[in-house]
Amino acid sequence: MSSLLIGVAERPLEGQPVSGDAYVAIEDAASSLICVIDGLGHGPEAARASQAAVTYIRGHAADEIEATMRALDDQLRSTRGAAVTIVRVDHVKSELQYCGVGNVTLRAFFRKPAYPVNVAGIVGKRPRRYLTTRHRMEVDDTFVVYTDGISSRWESESAPNGTPQAIASDLMARHGKAHDDLTCVVARMTNGTSPRFGRP
Fold first, then answer.
1. Residue 103: which of 122, 76, 89 has the closest Cα?
2. pTM higher than 0.85 for the full model?
3. Domains and CATH numbers, the chain
4. In which residue ranges of the chain is pLDDT below 70?
5. Which residue from 32, 70, 107, 147 puts its CA 20 to 30 A from 187's CA?
């Protein structure tokens, strides 16, 4: 059975005490859950929205991801709201399940092409719809989930090299925007039955 190896790079907007971005990474024997959240705006109020999402997701990690997204819309109603992407990798089926609202993006470097699509809207402000897609994953397939603190200029680049942590750190160094919070999570499917989820 496979597992995930991940790397993470994150920082707040310069001059802000906290980041409005956040992420969750949870793995059990059969699946891995990754969620990246971008609270609307910057500073403490954006962080309040993203941390409310983190708290809910940690308590409902086993739920279907679209059900989690719909519930988050209620949970964030009293906040500014957030862009949210939720990914579950099923290690039994070798399948990535994806649901995204707003401008937290996933870019996949898979043997079989995969182009997950986000729907427009803000979680907490009643998005018009939700969409869950499924994509085949194989060992060594890699994906990057990132907030708009990473410039879209990197999307013209070919598949990055190195460990997930090296890729995440490099993207932050070369393409991080000085005027925004930033979170970048890189995950690679690996062989092995023992969990290897976490920063290398």
1. 122
2. yes
3. 3-190 (3.60.40.10)
4. 192-200
5. 70
